[in-house]
Amino acid sequence: MHDRDGTTRVIGSHKEHISLVAFSPYGAYIVSVSRDGTVVITESTSGQQMARFTDLMGEISTATLSPDGTRIVSGYDNG
Q: Which of 42, 79, 33 has its CA nearest to residue 60?
């Protein structure tokens, strides 16, 4: 992620390809999902990791946030 001043921030701490990146409804958080079976929530302004969900059911390929930004649903490819 690049800030307006050109600063580059690394989001998430995935070990595999990132499948999807999405902003929360008001832009406060970034959700990233990966083929390594992780979902990471990062604060968009500081780049601080807020939560990390691991050992999910497979290669995470998609996710969406609820309209109020309080819930995340992720999906995976199980072959």
A: 33
